[in-house]
Every structure is written in structure tokens, then in C-alpha cells.
Specification:
208 residues; alpha/beta; seven-stranded mixed β-sheet; Rossmann fold
């Protein structure tokens, strides 16, 4: 009997997840022979923590309290079925303007032109909601027709009623955006909330 989507996703994310490479130039991207899901968000939104929680590992992606630590497009091979792509955080980085512009340009080029990119998870800190820089990123994805989904992070830091209210507001804000998935996921990497649901969503991308 075949696995349910939940069972498949649990096994997929519990299996091998190997770091492939960090990309700083479009010419060095890996071949587009596997579906990819990318993780985008403001600096310090919790991307590394979420990747670690999804894969049940402590250090697949470095966790840092210093915004702007991820300075490359980092590719991870998930069981030979899916690639996870950790994008540089946007909005702030302790680096030169030249370097920040380079990362931003690389990320935009990747988001605009990657044929096998199945979805972008746009991470939003539940305590702050959507910011202008998030809307700019979503605008790029809308124009490029790249499907994306809002994933709220750190919901353990606020009350459940506040998290629900923020999710409802975000859902309203993205309702008319052409590439946005209408479902807003709420997660906590620390508590494990919503992690299984996100795994299931991403596991389905392996068959698209």
C-alpha cells in the first residue's frame, strides 16, 4: 500500500539531506534536474531554524542571531527527490553595500529565471507581519509567475489569538496576488508547531 502524503513527507524529510554547494554566480547553479523549493525572508526571520526543524537536524543550516549571515544561495539535496534552497536574508546585513547589492541581484535573478523552482516559502516573523520589503519580494514572484506561500515563523513568541489575527490579515493582503498560495502556514521551529504540515505541502512538490 502506498504512503499517504503525510507519511511520504515524514520519510522524505527524515532521510538524507546533503549540502550540495553555495552559489554566488548564476553560472554555477546546479543543473535544473530536480524540483526546488526556496526559503526567502527578512534577515533573522528564522530561515535556518526552520530548515533545521524540517529536516530534524541541529545544524543543516547555521543558526545565528547576527542578521545577514547567509551570503550565498545554499543548495541541499533532499533524498534525490527535492532540493531545498536557503536564500540570503533581505532587508539588513552587516556587510558592505556592494556585497548586499550582489546578493540581492543574485537572488532576484534566481527567482526570475529558475524553471524547476516549484515554490518559494516567504517567511514572515509572526510578531511583525508583512513589511514593505516582503511586498517587494512578492511582487517579483508575482511578475515571474513563481508560486509562493507565506510561512509565519516564531508563533510561540506571541499569543495564539494574535497569531491567528496576523494570519488572517496576511491572507487578506495576499488574496489578489496572482502567484500567492491562499493558505498561510503558522510555524514554530522551537516548539515544532506546523512543521509536519509544511513538510506535507513541500513533499507534494516532488510529484509536480
Amino acid at each position: 500500500m502506498s504512503d499517504t502524503p503525510d507519511e511520504f513527507a515524514r520519510k522524505l524529510f527524515a532521510g538524507p539531506c546533503d549540502f550540495m554547494l553555495g552559489v554566488v554566480k548564476m553560472e554555477t547553479l546546479p543543473p535544473p534536474d530536480l524540483p526546488e523549493v526556496a526559503f526567502a525572508g527578512r534577515s533573522n526571520v528564522g530561515k535556518s531554524s526552520l530548515l533545521n526543524a524540517l529536516t530534524n537536524r541541529k545544524a543543516i543550516a547555521r543558526v545565528s542571531n547576527t542578521p545577514g549571515r547567509t551570503r550565498e544561495l545554499n543548495f541541499f539535496n533532499l533524498g534525490g527527490l527535492l532540493r531545498l534552497v536557503d536564500l540570503p536574508g533581505y532587508g539588513y546585513a552587516r556587510a558592505s553595500r556592494k556585497d548586499v547589492n550582489a546578493w540581492t541581484g543574485l537572488t532576484r535573478d534566481y527567482l526570475r529565471g529558475r524553471a524547476n523552482l516549484r515554490r518559494v516559502c516567504v517567511l514572515i516573523d509572526s510578531r511583525h507581519g508583512l513589511k514593505e520589503v516582503d511586498l517587494e519580494t512578492m511582487g517579483i514572484l508575482d511578475v515571474s509567475a513563481v508560486p509562493y506561500q507565506i510561512v509565519m515563523t516564531k508563533i510561540d513568541k506571541i499569543k495564539p489569538t494574535e497569531a491567528d489575527a496576523t494570519a488572517a490579515k496576511i491572507a487578506e493582503q495576499i488574496a489578489k496576488r496572482p502567484a500567492a498560495n491562499p493558505t498561510v502556514l503558522q510555524t514554530s521551529s522551537e516548539k515544532g508547531t506546523g512543521i509536519a504540515e509544511l513538510r506535507t505541502e513541500l513533499g507534494l512538490l516532488t510529484t509536480q
